[in-house]
Amino acid sequence: MAFARSRQALAVAGVLGLALGVTACGTGSNNKKSSKAGSAECAAYEKYQGHEGKKVSIYSTNTDVEADKLQESWKQFVDCTGITIDYEGSREFEAQLPVRVDGGNAPDLATIPQPGLLKRFADAGKLKPLAGDTKTMAEQNYPADWLKYATVNGTLYGVPLDSNVKSFVWYSPKTFKEKGWNVPTTWDELIKLSDTIAASGTKPWCAGIESGEATGWPATDWIEDLMLRTQTPEVYDQWTTHSIPFNDPKVAEALDRAGTILKNEKYVNGGFGGVKSIATTSFQEAGLPILQGKCALHRQASFYANNWPEGTKVAEDGDAYAFYFPAIDPAKGKPVLGAGQFTVAFSDRPEVQAVQTFLASGEHANSRAKLGSWASANNKLDLANVTSPIDKLSVQILQDKSAVFRFDGSDLMPAAVGAGTFWKGMVDWVNGKDTAPVLQGIEGSWPK
């Protein structure tokens, strides 16, 4: 709802769209004393008053453009309440947050993209349960299906923040029009299109799974999407909860299906090299060859809109857009993979609770949406405030009751697997290791 698995939402620095006087990593929002409290524009923030001069720290995966927009989204809240928000975004969030928490240096709030990691902290007694206004706001504004991902042993610990839809394939509408290619609506059509493009002398697909300490995660999204397409939603749930082993033949089928594209030298890796170049290509750069005509297709989430260079028109008639990653058998429904972040608290001071409550509100959802490149499952989000075509499409999919939605699987698994051996296993697989030993290795790492 990976949300920007926001390890998935790390943005390219060169596409900065806001000129803000803050850094993407380090200190964030600034106000020392509110000069607007009591004004008409602050009426919506009256319930958060009474904490002027207090500081709240937030640690997140969001860096670069995403970090700047996130900080801009709470600027009016800061101006009206006088609460200073010290923000830090890190590309090494998944590795560093446990170090900080276990070392007694936890932030006040963190935006966690993995329910498995959230559960780890909840089980260890590190998180503060939602209570009072924060719990009420969360239950009013988000569907129960989202809240369950932040619930551990019946206790709600987190509030959904942003959401993303992962079942997308990026392409260039201009190129498709020039070449006479049609957007595929079934898996068979997708493969036929890939063959057509390959026959023309262009590698149809480009991909990249390098992401610092999180290298490998983009490949896990492929497997999750294929699990939803080759199996039933119930089998998907069994897989993420380890009711079936990781090396079950059903999982192998999904991995091998992904391999028909990712490990096909005729298909990849447009603009970068052979199959093994996928492991060393950063996910931020992986789709950019589409604009250069070096590849035509790139499977990545809605948040990839942030990675196109400044000036790129992202629209149905633009330089880049995305279509729904087709189902193998459309008659069985429309599977949708998504993710997002959850705001959790490691302290419960009144000012911390005020910030967490605000981040669960409709005011924040609409404030952030107006800045672009953002979607949310918050039911107070007005679609008119969602600025980009791809985000509007994402929100419509999130609100589509006929879609079969499932949260990112690796984010649901224990962190040692979902953010550990699964990522590493996908790197080994891309680099040539066979399916069976890769899945056996991940299975053997599942906590007993």
Pick out its properties.
448 residues; alpha/beta; D-Maltodextrin-Binding Protein, domain 2; 2 domains; 6-stranded mixed sheet; 3-stranded antiparallel sheet; 11 strands; 12% strand; disordered N terminus; SBP; signal
Quick take:
The chain is of the alpha/beta class and 448 residues long.
* Separate helix tally: 18
- Rounded to the nearest angstrom, the distance between the terminal CA atoms is 27 Å
Main sheet characteristics: 6 strands, mixed
Q: How many beta-strand segments? A: 11
Number of domains: 2
- In the CATH hierarchy, the third-tier topology of the largest domain is known as D-Maltodextrin-Binding Protein, domain 2
How large a portion of the residues is in β-strands, by DSSP E? 5-15%
What are the secondary-structure elements, in order, as H or E? HEHHEHEHHHEEEEHHHHHEEEHHHEHHH
Signal peptide: 1-24
Protein name: Carbohydrate ABC transporter substrate-binding protein, CUT1 family
Family: Belongs to the bacterial solute-binding protein 1 family.
Organism: Micromonospora eburnea
